[in-house]
């Protein structure tokens, strides 16, 4: 199915599709995954992209969706996953975005103040929506420094 995402397990260590809220089991989620292939990012870097998001709702409604559509792992749902970044947390206790290589918090400078970036993914069936990502200002990664220093050799 074009323009679709696939249902995956609620957590990596389980085969269950439906995950329940730890705060209130009347609410739950279904995890979806989108493998977008390859794209060119900032500085000409080739990036592979895989996104995950949660379809959230009342547990009873999610169970009905699963049963009515005979949903199993790999089931395709029309829609896409978008990335949204902003400078305020999306929810209480959210940790800011970090560089996976260095563990460094990523930030932007607003009015002279370094402000952390917060990231969230969202499933949508609106195919006109696009990712909204902030350009961080952190120091270059080790790979970027190697390129700048011409330490990369062609093989």
Q: What does the secondary structure layout of this molecule look like, with pairings?
A:
Layout: E1 4-7, E2 18-20, E3 27-40, E4 46-58, H1 59-68, E5 76-78, E6 80-86, E7 107-110, E8 113-116, E9 118-124, H2 142-148
Antiparallel strand pairs: 1-3, 1-5, 2-3, 3-4, 6-9, 7-8
Describe the structure.
With 155 residues, the chain is mostly beta strands. The chain starts with a strand and ends in a 7-residue tail after the last helix. The strands form three sheets. Strands 1, 2, 3, 4 and 5 form a five-stranded antiparallel sheet that branches. It has a two-stranded antiparallel sheet with strand order 6-9. Strands 7-8 form a two-stranded antiparallel ribbon. Strand 2 (18-20) and strand 3 (27-40) form a beta hairpin. It has two helices and nine strands; from the N terminus they run E-E-E-E-H-E-E-E-E-E-H. It is globular. The chain has helices at 59-68, 142-148, and strands at 4-7, 18-20, 27-40, 46-58, 76-78, 80-86, 107-110, 113-116, 118-124.
- Low-confidence parts: none
Helix share of residues? 10-25%
Order of helices and strands: EEEEHEEEEEH
Structural class: mainly beta
* Overall geometric form: globular
Descriptive tags:
155 residues
Task: State the gist of this model.
The protein has 155 residues and is mostly beta strands.
């Amino acid at each position: 199915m074009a323009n679709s995402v696939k249902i995956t397990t609620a957590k990596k260590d389980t085969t269950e599709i439906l995950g329940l809220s730890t705060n209130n089991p009347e609410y739950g989620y279904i995890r979806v995954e989108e493998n977008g292939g390859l794209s060119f990012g900032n500085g000409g870097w080739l990036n592979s992209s895989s996104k995950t998001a949660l379809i959230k709702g009342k547990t009873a409604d999610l169970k009905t969706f699963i049963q009515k559509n005979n949903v199993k792992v790999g089931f395709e749902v029309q829609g896409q996953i978008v990335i949204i970044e902003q400078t305020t947390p999306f929810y209480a206790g959210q940790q800011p975005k970090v560089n996976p290589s260095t563990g460094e918090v990523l930030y932007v400078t607003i009015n002279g103040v370094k402000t952390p970036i917060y990231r969230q993914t969202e499933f949508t069936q609106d195919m006109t929506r696009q990712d909204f990502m902030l350009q961080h200002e952190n120091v270059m990664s080790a790979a970027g420094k190697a390129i700048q220093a011409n330490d990369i050799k062609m093989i």
